[in-house]
Specification:
Elements: H1 25-41, H2 52-85, H3 89-113, H4 119-148, H5 154-180, H6 189-219, H7 221-224
Length: about 260
């Protein structure tokens, strides 16, 4: 029995303490700091406080900071890839606001509600951001196709894109929310929070793609006007599955024609 609490040479000993099962992370950290201060005052500064609850509390902070950095890098890389894929920094700038809106909107809600960033919240934001980027890419892809391949005017292309894929974006958002909203009724607080954040972020993303992005494109007519002069080769200019009647624009050498 003695060996379970004291080492053979008597230099180390295990002291077990008890605390409430449910305790906030900030309170637990303050408790650990107070105990460390008392150990130093007692001349046993080399004493260490352990336990599963304490280890997970401090480890979660490191994980959350790492996920925050990953999310930030993901935003930057995705915007860069969008600009590279469409061969235009204007497209990257146009996608920045609608893609950042759901993330910043959800973080603002967390701040004012006093929730703060946790492991669950960062994971939910990361997943929802990926879905928001997907909707934005679809919108910009159809808009640029209308400008570059169908020779539409700027505002006509915005209206055409909104009328064509707006309903699809709304439908997919409703389906995703319907599949996740049941999680918000979970008795586990972290699981319920995940569902709430996921649904709210998708709602913010829908607003960004259906209202902010079209308004941004329409308001920046002069800035986005040159997008119609850039030709991009896409699968040998074959008609897309969702537009089988589209006309291809190729030169006499079989290369994509340049639309001015």
């Amino acid at each position: 029995m003695r060996k379970r609490f004291v080492t053979d040479d008597g230099s180390q000993a295990l002291v077990t303490g008890f605390m409430p099962t449910i305790i906030e992370s900030d309170v637990l950290k303050q408790l650990v700091d107070d105990l460390d201060a008392e150990f130093i005052a007692a001349g046993i500064a080399d004493a260490e406080i352990g336990g599963f609850r304490i280890l997970t509390t401090f480890a979660t902070d490191d994980i959350v900071r790492g996920l925050q950095l990953d999310l930030t890098l993901s935003v930057i890389v995705n915007l860069g890839l969008i600009g590279f894929a469409f061969q235009s920094f204007r497209v990257a700038l146009a996608s920045a606001i609608p893609n950042l809106f759901p993330v910043l909107g959800t973080e603002a809600w967390l701040y004012f509600s006093g929730q703060g960033l946790q492991l669950t919240t960062v994971i939910a934001l990361t997943i929802a951001f990926g879905i928001a980027v997907d909707d934005t890419v679809h919108f910009l892809s159809h808009y640029l196709h209308a400008r570059r391949n169908e020779a539409m005017a700027h505002l006509d292309a915005v209206r055409h894109t909104l009328n064509r894929i707006g309903g699809a974006i709304v439908a997919t958002t409703i389906i995703l929310c319907a599949g996740v909203i049941i999680v918000t009724f979970s008795e586990l607080p972290q699981v319920a929070l995940f569902g709430t954040l996921f649904v709210s972020t998708l709602a913010f993303a829908l607003i960004g793609d259906l209202f902010i992005l079209p308004a941004l494109l329409a308001a920046g007519g002069k800035f986005f006007h040159p997008l119609g002069k850039i030709s991009v080769r896409m699968a040998d200019e074959d008609p897309t599955p969702d537009d089988p009647t589209a006309d291809t624009h190729t030169s006499q050498h079989g290369r994509p024609a340049r639309i001015e």
